[in-house]
Amino acid sequence: MLEKKIDRRNLLKIGTTSAVVGTALLFTGCEEEAAAPIFTDATKTAILMDTSLCVECHACRVACQNHNALPVEQSYIKFESVEKGSFPKVEYHLSRNSCMHCTDAPCVDICPVKALYKGDTGFTHMNYDACIGCGMCKMQCPYDVPVIAEVDSARKMFKCQGCEDLITEGQEPACVNTCIANSLKYGPVEEMIDAAKARVEVLKVKYPKANVYGVTQQDGLGLILILRDDAKEFKLVYKDKVTSLA
Ligand code: SF4
Ligand code: SF4
Ligand code: SF4
C-alpha cells in the first residue's frame, strides 16, 4: 500500500494543463521517479485532534508560528467553524484546517523539485529552500492546504511541515505540546485511531453524527480528527483533483 512511484500517470492525466506539465517536465525529466517512502505502518505516527475539547484559544497556532519563525501573516493552522440550531439550542462546532499528512500524498508526487517528501513517521515535510513557489502542490492537494505567498521577493509554499526537527528528537509537535485543553495528542497512528474511536462512542450519546475522520482518506491521514458532526460541514470532503483535471 505504501509503495508509491512518482505519478507519471498523474502527470499524463493532467496533461491537458499544458503549462503545468511543461513546468513539471522542465524540472523532473520524463523518466525520473521519486524515492520510495521510508515510513511503514509500524513507524507511522499521527496528531489526534479531539475537536470537542478545543476551546479555540489559538495557542497551537501561535506556538506553531513561533516554532517555525513564520511571518505574522502566515499560519499553518486555520479553523473551520459551523453554528447550528437557534436560540436557546445553538451548537458551535469547529475543526482544524491544516496539512492532513496524507499517506498517499499527491503534493509529494507532483512537486517538480522534490521540495516535499515523506518522513519516516509518515508526515509530509518540506524543504523551503528548494521550493520554487510554482503552486503545483496546491493544484493537487485534495484539501486545498498549500498557500503560495511572496516573502522577501521569493514565492514559496507554506503549509504545516510536521515539526520534523522535534519529532526526530522524540518530542511532540509544537502545536500538540502547547494545547491547554488536551485537545491535541501525538503518537503511533494505531493508538491514535483506537483512542479516537473510543472517544466517539462517548460523544455519540449527545452527538449522533460524531465520527473519526482520517482513517481511510488518502490511504490514511497523519492528522486524525474527532468530529461532532459530518465532515462535509467542515469542508473536509476531499476532492479528487487529478481526476477532475483529466
Ligand atoms: S505539526 Fe508543527 S508545523 Fe504542523 S501545525 Fe503543528 S506546530 Fe505547526
Ligand atoms: S493535505 Fe495536501 S499538502 Fe498535506 S500531505 Fe495531503 S496533499 Fe500534501
Ligand atoms: S510550490 Fe514549492 S513545494 Fe509546491 S510544487 Fe512547487 S516547488 Fe514544490
From TrEMBL:
Its cofactor is [4Fe-4S] cluster. Its main location: other. Keywords: 4Fe-4S, Electron transport, Iron, Iron-sulfur, Metal-binding, Repeat, Transport. GO terms for cellular component: cell envelope. The keyword Transport applies. InterPro entries: 4Fe4S_Fe-S-bd (IPR017896), 4Fe4S_Fe_S_CS (IPR017900), 7Fe_ferredoxin (IPR000813), FDH_Electron_Transfer_Unit (IPR051555). Pfam families: Fer4_11. One of its GO terms (molecular function) is electron transfer activity. Residues 45-75, 90-121, 122-151 form the 4Fe-4S ferredoxin-type domain. The keyword Electron transport applies. It is found in: Cell envelope. PANTHER family: FORMATE DEHYDROGENASE, NITRATE-INDUCIBLE, IRON-SULFUR SUBUNIT. This is 4Fe-4S ferredoxin-type domain-containing protein.
